[in-house]
Amino acid sequence: MARSSVIALFLVCLGSVVAGHAVYNSSAPFVVEDEDALLTVPQLIRKYGYEVEEYQVPTEDGYLLALYRIPSRTNSGKHPVFMMHSLFSSCSDWVLIGPKHGLAYLLADRGYDIWMGNARGTRYSRNHERLAVNSAEFWDFTFHEIGFYDVPALIDFVLDRTGFSKLHYIGFSQGAMTSFIALTSRPQYNAKIVQLQALSPAVYMYRSLSSFIRLGVTLRQEIEAAFDAAGLLEVVPHFEQQYHFWKWLCPAPQQTACRTIIYNVAGANPKQLDVKMLQIFLGHFPAGASVKQALHYLQIITDGIFRQFDYEYPTKNALVYGSSTVPRYNLSRATAPVRTYYGYNDNVVNYLNVLQLEREIPNVVGSYAVPDKRFTHADFILANNVKEVLYDEVVRNVERAERDAS
């Protein structure tokens, strides 16, 4: 199919999304305020009455990662909970919808010691011991380095600070996927996980139904060439006027342009996406990633193979990996107990891809299909009903794993 035809088809698809999903929600259970869009995660946590501690964690390769803690209010003696966010996002994933709804708050209210990581290159982790943030060397990473360096460094820091030998791991999308990179590349970390709660794990994504994602796959080489020509190293960074920009581009209550993109990429569930909550979310998201990281995603979507970055030149691959064949992640080495969670209307991580992952890891102790059949990828952190249809189940499973580990 000609490139012009593909683009035309894509625009038609976007238009159908707008026409077909004009419904929007302006009433939600969340107790949040417009100013939350302009606050940092530590400011949000303090605003809603929780204590927060801020740390900077060094990795083996010199990145300095922000790690935020909500200490246990009860000194319950429970294992700590470590939480890792999705692509283009930050640890705001866990707190944006506020107390009594955000997953970090729900677990903190049950006496857990909460630790929330931020991957390299995101809004809160843009520092390095030697490299300048505007250097090509700083941005020379993909999700492999997040899994190989960031996740282990953050886990070790939490365990060292708390004195525990194990922790609960909760990851959403990329945050779940990078846990599998850590567990397969450094199998000794399996022994450090009480249980992994994998929310829409982005290990396999090749069944995506999003026309936007499919277009990115089709134009992958052109996209890479355009980034190279422009000298761009970072994609969708957070910026100071971000909230005001999106509020101008997507005026309430229709928010047409923003909802068009979200419905196409993540899946459409209009009645569960609150008007105010979307505005607040866009003050925090996107939070940045590397161009190389985004290209790595397009590779694994294209190929349907969970493996390291393909330099697409046999000599370059041989130089980096010692072989012209790009190494795959051996999922049989992820032996920690895993529970998966998936939605039937998730355009990013199709539920069949999650079921495929379940067949390839050796210790699946639970698989949960969200009962709302319209539940999308964005709904994992934003849906009005996310507590009732998902988080209550996650909390129950963490509590069950905690009892079994005690």
TrEMBL record:
SUPFAM superfamilies linked: alpha/beta-Hydrolases (SSF53474)
Glycoprotein keyword on record: yes
Domain Partial AB-hydrolase lipase: 41-96
Pfam families: Abhydro_lipase (PF04083), Abhydrolase_1 (PF00561)
GO biological process assignments: lipid catabolic process
Key words, A-Z: Glycoprotein, Hydrolase, Lipid degradation, Lipid metabolism, Signal
List of catalytic residues: S173 (nucleophile), D346 (charge relay system), H377 (charge relay system)
UniProt GO molecular function: hydrolase activity
Signal peptide: 1-19
Presence of keyword Zinc: no
Matching Gene3D superfamilies: alpha/beta hydrolase
AB hydrolase-1 domain segment(s): 101-205
Sequence similarity: Belongs to the AB hydrolase superfamily. Lipase family.
Protein name as catalogued: Lipase
Taxonomic classification: Eukaryota, Metazoa, Ecdysozoa, Arthropoda, Hexapoda
